[in-house]
Amino acid sequence: MKACILSVIAFEIAGNLPSKKSKPSAFMMFVNQWREKSANDLSLNDAIAEVGIVWANMNLNERTPFVQSAIVEKQKLQNKKNHYEFRSPENSILKIAIQHLTIFAILHSWSKILIQYKAD
């Protein structure tokens, strides 16, 4: 029971932390630009399927602007992450606490299972 309560507390704390954003790739930058220009009505999966063929036929010079913009976006995300962690170090402490609480909850659950297994 205590482990369940600790897990709930950990997930409530985790809900207050910012979500992790994925780093954009050059291909995804190209997909997003292509969708804006020509195919707004396509889903992301359909756009990726169509654009993949175009991307495969592009040479290095044609891909370079997208690679550069992906590098810039990755750097922006890294700077934002560094600023956030520097601005509020308690979030790093919260992340560690959540990890420990989650591990404790898992170990506590396993210990109950093992005790019941030994009793049988």
Q: Overview of this structure, please?
A:
This is HMG box domain-containing protein. Residues 20-85 form the HMG box domain. There is one protein chain. The protein is an all-alpha fold and 120 residues long. The chain has two domains: 28-35 and 43-87; 89-119. It has helices spanning 2-15, 26-38, 44-57, 60-87, 90-119.
* N-to-C span: 21 Å
Name the quaternary structure: single chain
Rough outline: elongated
What does the main sheet amount to? none
- Percentage of residues in strands: under 5%
In total, the number of domains comes to: 2
Relative helix content: over 70%
- Regions with little confidence, pLDDT below 50 for 5+ residues: none
Tell how many strands the DSSP assignment holds.
Answer: 0
What structural class is derived from the secondary structure elements? mainly alpha
Average residue pLDDT: 73
Order of helices and strands: HHHHH
| Rg from alpha-carbon coordinates | 23 Å
What is the count of helical runs?
Answer: 5
Write the layout of secondary structure elements.
Elements: H1 2-15, H2 26-38, H3 44-57, H4 60-87, H5 90-119
Helix pairs in contact: 1-5, 2-3, 2-4
GO molecular function: DNA binding
DNA-binding region: 20-85
Organism: Glossina palpalis gambiensis
The gist of it:
Residues 20-85 bind DNA. Helix content is 82%, strand content 0%.
What features would you highlight for this structure?
DNA-binding; nucleus; HMG_box_dom_sf; mainly alpha; HMG_box_dom; 2 domains; 5 helices
